[in-house]
């Protein structure tokens, strides 16, 4: 199998250089780089089967970091960060949530959309829709460490509560991929409905939900076996989905129906309520009592009381609002505005816009993009 | 074995290497007009009379269906475009509309126009933002004229010509 061409990923950072020095080089049988005790996870790795499909375009990527550096940097997370994917400028704006300022702009792949964060791994994962890859960002140095090549076109990314697995919805291959966060070549794939787009993981880490945009349903996947357990009917064209922090409900934005589906995850009971025009994404307050929905073509956010399932307020925000997330620390809601190249900040209590932060071009931020401390 | 893998890889490469998700496309254009904002807004919000300022539009037919307003544009280059009014907000001076169907190489097209005073005294800025997809939403190969570039080119040309025409009409030239 020695004919496989392998070009090493070049990371010029001092961090990577240190790490490379302590790496054992290469295991000819498995084509796997191995970590050493000094390196947390020099991830990447290609197995012959992967190479067969990614041959010629594949790069061998080495993602490295040193535990010592991570330990030294632990104090720098006060207030947390929001990671905003910018489809048009092919980068990620890092917003310091205490200062409400963009403190870094990280170049990633083409057309970044989906985002997932892991405080424990100190990683941010970004789906590059147009370059068929996942960018891996170090949340301490705010640098892209490398990328994971994929076959199709990734949309949503989500991380399991125990941080062991990164889930990727691939809407061209109609699959969901579970990637081991300690070894990116360890991947499990399950076929699902048409154009899987949004992802949500149950707080107990047992179940993964995926919105099948073109099949108008929500796939229910058992994470341990990566098999489809059932499919729940949603409205037309479900896109963003979110589970309430208490784990009791799933909310799905039905884009073509101007509604959201509210699914009781215990009883399976489903209710639909009307929101604004072309809803995209949903965020839920830390106490699970309030739901926020972006209406892309009304430039607004609908606020829903989870007790009565009624819309209690509509807030004007920046144009074409897409991604939305709730900061449990400050009780503020952050909304990515695609046409304004900005993030609108809402006070969840007063339901008023309190700030607008300029970001990169065509901000989308599809997923849970707030990394708390 | 080696040859087989290489051939297999070459065979699938054109498909996998080019495949990408259909991302929404954006055209964002502005013009500064030496005229009163109210005068410019009156032209913009007059949904059934875009031909009065847009040089590419030969005529407009306004139709009401219940509470909804539609306009059928006949283009000078031939063909028609059917659009639905989504809202005309006088306070914000913001017009929103979407395309139902028509001779434009776009899908899911929707747009807004805003009118604001400034930047200078006696000046008005008009901003026109459209969001749309290419016509062909599936995996490549993408048929000619149904790709992102075709969609962007058509909308960009329509906006550029329109804003120039709006400026002329509002400035009375």
Brief digest:
The complex is a heterodimer of chains A (373) and B (173). Chain A has 3 helices and 31 strands.
- Specify the overall morphology of chain A: globular
Number of domains of chain A: 2
CATH superfamily of the largest domain in chain A: YVTN repeat-like/Quinoprotein amine dehydrogenase
**Count of distinct strands of chain B:** 7
- CATH architecture of the largest domain in chain A, by name, is 7 Propeller
Proportion of β residues of chain B? 35-45%
Percent helix range of chain A: under 10%
Using only CA atoms, what is the Rg of chain A?
Answer: 20 Å
Q: How many H/I helices of chain A?
A: 3
The count of strands of chain A amounts to 31
Question: What's the CATH C level of the domain at 23-45 and 87-171 in chain B?
Answer: Alpha Beta
On the 0 to 100 scale, the average pLDDT of chain B is 87
| Alpha-beta classification of chain B | alpha+beta
- What is the level 1 CATH name of the largest domain in chain A? Mainly Beta
CATH topology of the domain at 23-45 and 87-171 in chain B: Alpha-D-Glucose-1,6-Bisphosphate, Chain A, domain 4
Structure notes:
The complex is a heterodimer of chains A (about 375) and B (about 170). Chain A contains 3 helices and 31 strands. With about 375 residues, chain A is mainly beta. Chain A has a 5-stranded mixed beta sheet with strand order 9-8-7-6-30, with no helix packed on it. Chain A starts with 13 loop residues before the first helix and ends with a strand. Mean pLDDT of chain A is about 85; it is low at about 1-75. Chain B has a domain at about 25-45 and about 85-170: START domain (Alpha-D-Glucose-1,6-Bisphosphate, Chain A, domain 4), CATH 3.30.530.20. In chain B, strands 1-7-6-5-4-3-2 form a 7-stranded antiparallel beta sheet. Residues about 1-20 of chain B have low confidence and may be disordered. Chains A and B meet through loops of A and helix 1 of B.
